[in-house]
Inverse folding.
C-alpha cells in the first residue's frame, strides 16, 4: 500500500508536470476529453496540437506496453457490451459536462474553479456509487 | 512545429504519468471507486500529486504574458453552474465507475493490445461525435459548453 501510494504521488506529479508543459509552452489546458473532442469536431480548426498530444499519449502507451506491461490491466468480470456502454456514457458525459478527470479534476481544481470543483464532486460521487453497487452485486452473486 | 513537438511531449509525459500512477489498471481504478470490498484508496494520491506540482507551476506560468509558443493562454472563464454541467459530470462518473476508464487511460490503454480499451475508446469517440452532431442540429439547446 505504501509503495502504491508512492507510485500514485510520483505518477500524479508527472501528470501535473505534463499539464504545466502544455500550458507553459502551448497555452492550453490539459483536459483529455476537451482535446479529443475538439479534434473530432469538424467545426474546430486547431487540429495539429490536438493530434500531436494524442500521438504523444499513444507513443507513451506503446513504451509502457513494452517496458512495463503490468501497468495496463483491463477490467476483469466485465463483458464487452458493459465496456461499450461505459464508453458511451463517458463520451457523452464529458462533452456535456465540459471536462473529465484531467480537465476538471487536475487543472480545474488547481485554479479553484467553482464549476470544476462541483463537476469533480459529482463524477467522484456517481463513479463511487456505480462501482460500489456493481461490486456489491458481483460479491452477492455466488 | 514547436507547438506540435511541445504537445507531443506533454501527451507522452501524461501517458507515462498515468502508467506509473496506476491509472491504466482498470481493476485498481474500480477498487478505488468501490467503497465496499477491498477498498484501495491509493489512487486518491494521484490527483494530490498532480495538483501539488501544477499548483506551484501554474502560478509561475500565469505570470508570463503569453505561452512560449502561443499568442495567449486559453483558460476557461465560465463560472455558472448549469444543469448541463451537473448531468454531464454525473453521466461521466457512471461510465467511469462501470469500466474503470476515464478518457485519458482509455485512449492510452488501446496500445496494450487488449480488446476492452479499444471497444471503450471507440464507443467514447462515437458518443462524442454523435453529441456534437446533435448540437450542430440544435437538437440540444444551450450553447456549447466550455471544454476543460
Amino acid at each position: 500500500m505504501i509503495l502504491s501510494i508512492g507510485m500514485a504521488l510520483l505518477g500524479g506529479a508527472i501528470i501535473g508536470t505534463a499539464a504545466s508543459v502544455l500550458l507553459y509552452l502551448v497555452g492550453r489546458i490539459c483536459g483529455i476529453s476537451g482535446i479529443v473532442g475538439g479534434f473530432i469536431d469538424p467545426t474546430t480548426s486547431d487540429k495539429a496540437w490536438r493530434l500531436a498530444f494524442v500521438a504523444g499519449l499513444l507513443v507513451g502507451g506503446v513504451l509502457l506496453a513494452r517496458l512495463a506491461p503490468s501497468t495496463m490491466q483491463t477490467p476483469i468480470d466485465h463483458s464487452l457490451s458493459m465496456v461499450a456502454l461505459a464508453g458511451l456514457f463517458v463520451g457523452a458525459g464529458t462533452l456535456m459536462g465540459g471536462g473529465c478527470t484531467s480537465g476538471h479534476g487536475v487543472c480545474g481544481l488547481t485554479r479553484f474553479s467553482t464549476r470544476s470543483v462541483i463537476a469533480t464532486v459529482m463524477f467522484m460521487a456517481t463513479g463511487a456509487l456505480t462501482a460500489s453497487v456493481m461490486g456489491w452485486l458481483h460479491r452477492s452473486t455466488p | 512545429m514547436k507547438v506540435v513537438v511541445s504537445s507531443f511531449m506533454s501527451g507522452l509525459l501524461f501517458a507515462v504519468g498515468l502508467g506509473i500512477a496506476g491509472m491504466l489498471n482498470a481493476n485498481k481504478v474500480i477498487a478505488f471507486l468501490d467503497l465496499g470490498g477491498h477498498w484501495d484508496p491509493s489512487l486518491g494520491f494521484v490527483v494530490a500529486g498532480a495538483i501539488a506540482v501544477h499548483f506551484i507551476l501554474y502560478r509561475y506560468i500565469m505570470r508570463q504574458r503569453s505561452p512560449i509558443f502561443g499568442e495567449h493562454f486559453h483558460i476557461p472563464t465560465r463560472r455558472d453552474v448549469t444543469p448541463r454541467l451537473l448531468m454531464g459530470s454525473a453521466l461521466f462518473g457512471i461510465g467511469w465507475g462501470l469500466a474503470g476508464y476515464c478518457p485519458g487511460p482509455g485512449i492510452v490503454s488501446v496500445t496494450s493490445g487488449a480488446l476492452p480499451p479499444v471497444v471503450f475508446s471507440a464507443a467514447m469517440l462515437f458518443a462524442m461525435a454523435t453529441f456534437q452532431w446533435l448540437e450542430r442540429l440544435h437538437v440540444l439547446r444551450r450553447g456549447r459548453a466550455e471544454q476543460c
Remarks:
- Chain B touches chain A through 119 residues (CB under 8 Å).
- Residues 80-148 of chain B form one domain.
- Chain B has two domains: 1-75, 80-148.
- Residues 110 and 116 of chain B are 8 Å apart (CA to CA).
